[in-house]
């Protein structure tokens, strides 16, 4: 791929506007590459110098260069010419393409204008761009035609080809929250546990939280809590590996009760320990500091 004797890897993603460059850069981010989107070609030599001077941070790097970079076509070819004379960092050009019909359809679906003909027909800009990109396409080491590829297919193709010894990370974030403070906006799965008996109404448990053994024991000993745990455990063992296979890098599971102090904290702590067998797990309690009176 883009490796050289110095161990520095530089992948340049370019190609037709609308062919999937944003999907590609996210795939490389998931592989742990240092990614820069929309790097002006004129700045590429400066960035290469930074790569050479860095120890580890810029060992595996991806830059996306496209029409947003201004005076793009001439400066990109000049930058690649200069790089190809470099003995330390050799560029690996990844070119994304698609047929004209597909690109026109994508522009219509997104209701965006082509950057080369902002007031004209998308097809005019596509044809002009294809002609101007012919030279850099000829220098590409890998060309993907995404005409019949869904974003997921492109992502999986890139992950498979460029992963090497790298593996995409997948982690679980189990959180608690209180509905009275609002729903979490970043949760993938939300479970309302307000049907369980509330320790808040037991005087000696009210000032405590689900982090205290007295509260967690009270919640977990309830028959409904045990039934819930049995059913959710079966669900998690089924769906979590499938989320991982789907390509997600993180799954946020949220448990909510009224104030986010007792029941939700107990369940989040329980699953924070039990789910580690499926994936690295982090537990957080969004509203624990918001003490109830």
What's this model, at a glance?
The protein has 293 residues and is an alpha/beta fold. The protein has 10 helices and 9 strands.
Total count of domains:
2
Sheet with most strands: strand arrangement: 2-3-1-4-5
Helix/strand order, N-terminal first? EHEHEHEHHHEHEEHHEHE
Which word captures the global form?
Answer: elongated
Radius of gyration over all CA atoms, rounded: 26 Å
Please count the helical segments: 10
Distance between the termini: 61 Å
Major beta-sheet overview: 5 strands, parallel
How many individual β-strands? 9
Helix content: 25-40%
* CATH topology title of the largest domain: Rossmann fold
The structure class reads alpha/beta
- Give the uncertain stretches in residue-range form: none
Determine the mean pLDDT.
85
CATH superfamily of the largest domain: P-loop containing nucleotide triphosphate hydrolases
The CATH architecture designation of the largest domain is 3-Layer(aba) Sandwich
What's the structural blueprint in terms of helices and strands?
Blueprint: E1 9-15, H1 21-30, E2 34-37, H2 44-53, E3 60-64, H3 72-84, E4 91-97, H4 100-110, H5 122-132, H6 134-138, E5 142-145, H7 151-162, E6 171-178, E7 189-192, H8 213-220, H9 223-246, E8 250-257, H10 263-274, E9 281-285
Parallel strand pairs: 1-3, 1-4, 2-3, 4-5, 6-8, 6-9, 7-8
Helix pairs in contact: 1-7, 4-5, 8-10
Describe this structure in words.
- With 293 residues, the chain is an alpha/beta fold.
- It has 10 helices and 9 strands.
- The strands form 2 sheets. It has a 5-stranded parallel beta sheet with strand order 2-3-1-4-5, sandwiched between helices.
- α2 (44-53) links the parallel β2 (34-37) and β3 (60-64).
- α8 (213-220) crosses α10 (263-274).
- The longest helix is centred in the C-terminal third of the chain and has 24 residues, at 223-246.
- The protein starts with 8 loop residues before the first strand and ends in an 8-residue tail after the last strand.
């Amino acid at each position: 791929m883009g490796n050289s004797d110095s161990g520095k890897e530089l992948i340049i993603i370019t190609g037709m506007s609308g062919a999937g460059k944003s999907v590609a850069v996210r795939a490389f981010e998931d592989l742990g590459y240092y990614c820069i989107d929309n790097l002006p070609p004129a700045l590429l030599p400066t960035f290469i110098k930074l790569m050479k001077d860095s120890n580890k941070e810029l060992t595996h790097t991806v830059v996306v260069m496209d029409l947003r970079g201004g005076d793009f076509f001439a400066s990109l070819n000049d930058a690649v010419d200069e790089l190809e004379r470099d003995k330390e960092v050799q560029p690996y050009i990844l070119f994304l393409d698609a047929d004209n019909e597909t690109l026109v359809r994508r522009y219509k679906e997104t209701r965006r204008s082509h950057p080369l003909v902002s007031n004209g027909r998308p097809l005019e800009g596509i044809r002009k761009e294809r002609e101007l990109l012919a030279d850099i396409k000829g220098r590409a080491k890998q060309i993907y035609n995404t005409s019949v590829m869904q974003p997921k297919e492109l992502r999986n193709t890139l992950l498979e080809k460029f992963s090497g010894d790298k593996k995409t990370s997948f982690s679980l974030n189990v959180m608690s929250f209180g509905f009275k403070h609002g729903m979490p906006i970043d949760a993938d799965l939300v479970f309302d546990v307000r049907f369980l008996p509330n320790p808040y109404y037991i005087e000696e448990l009210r000032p405590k939280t689900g982090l205290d053994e007295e509260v967690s024991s009270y919640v977990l000993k309830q028959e409904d809590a045990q039934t819930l745990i049995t059913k959710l455990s079966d669900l998690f063992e089924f769906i979590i590996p499938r989320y991982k296979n789907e390509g997600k890098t993180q799954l946020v599971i949220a448990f909510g009760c009224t104030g986010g102090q007792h029941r939700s904290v107990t369940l989040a702590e329980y699953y924070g320990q039990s789910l580690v067998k499926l994936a690295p797990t982090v537990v957080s309690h969004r509203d624990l500091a918001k003490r109830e009176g």
